[in-house]
Amino acid sequence: MLQFASKHIQIVKTKRKAVYHRSLMYLQFNIHFTQKQIIISKSNLYEQQYEFNQIFDPQCDQEQIYLCVVNPIVTDALNGISSNLIIYGSQGSGKTYSLFGTIGSLFTLKQGLVSIESGIAIRMIHVNM
């Protein structure tokens, strides 16, 4: 019999440091972050709100994201609860970095270590070895 976690679905977002392209500068959108919301507005003409379970600051490291988001999913999976982790985002949004971290962190895994730059996939493998 399948078991489902009480948390069901969580949606989290990591904030990246702003990178602006010159061709987008004329749009002049205002972006405001709260702990669980992103609000995008343009003057008084437009406002769109997006809800999340949690939004992580750009200063947040891989370990914090792993402990808050991924570790509970891994624990549920190891306890027989059907679990799934989906990493989604546009090109260049940091999906590969979130999964694997830096290239240097892969070398530390070969030495049996996890560095602060190690991604969530590396941490899942290391923790459950």
Automatic annotation (TrEMBL):
<comment type="similarity">
    <text>Belongs to the TRAFAC class myosin-kinesin ATPase superfamily. Kinesin family.</text>
</comment>
<dbReference type="GO" id="GO:0008017">
    <property type="term" value="F:microtubule binding"/>
</dbReference>
<dbReference type="GO" id="GO:0003777">
    <property type="term" value="F:microtubule motor activity"/>
</dbReference>
<dbReference type="InterPro" id="IPR001752">
    <property type="entry name" value="Kinesin_motor_dom"/>
</dbReference>
<dbReference type="InterPro" id="IPR027417">
    <property type="entry name" value="P-loop_NTPase"/>
</dbReference>
<keyword id="KW-0493">Microtubule</keyword>
<dbReference type="InterPro" id="IPR036961">
    <property type="entry name" value="Kinesin_motor_dom_sf"/>
</dbReference>
<dbReference type="GO" id="GO:0005524">
    <property type="term" value="F:ATP binding"/>
</dbReference>
<keyword id="KW-0067">ATP-binding</keyword>
<dbReference type="Pfam" id="PF00225">
    <property type="entry name" value="Kinesin"/>
</dbReference>
<feature type="domain" description="Kinesin motor">
    <location>
        <begin position="8"/>
        <end position="129"/>
    </location>
</feature>
<dbReference type="InterPro" id="IPR027640">
    <property type="entry name" value="Kinesin-like_fam"/>
</dbReference>
<protein>
    <recommendedName>
        <fullName>Kinesin motor domain-containing protein</fullName>
    </recommendedName>
</protein>
<dbReference type="GO" id="GO:0005874">
    <property type="term" value="C:microtubule"/>
</dbReference>
<keyword id="KW-0505">Motor protein</keyword>
<dbReference type="GO" id="GO:0007018">
    <property type="term" value="P:microtubule-based movement"/>
</dbReference>
<feature type="binding site">
    <location>
        <begin position="89"/>
        <end position="96"/>
    </location>
    <ligand>
        <name>ATP</name>
    </ligand>
</feature>
<keyword id="KW-0175">Coiled coil</keyword>
<keyword id="KW-0547">Nucleotide-binding</keyword>
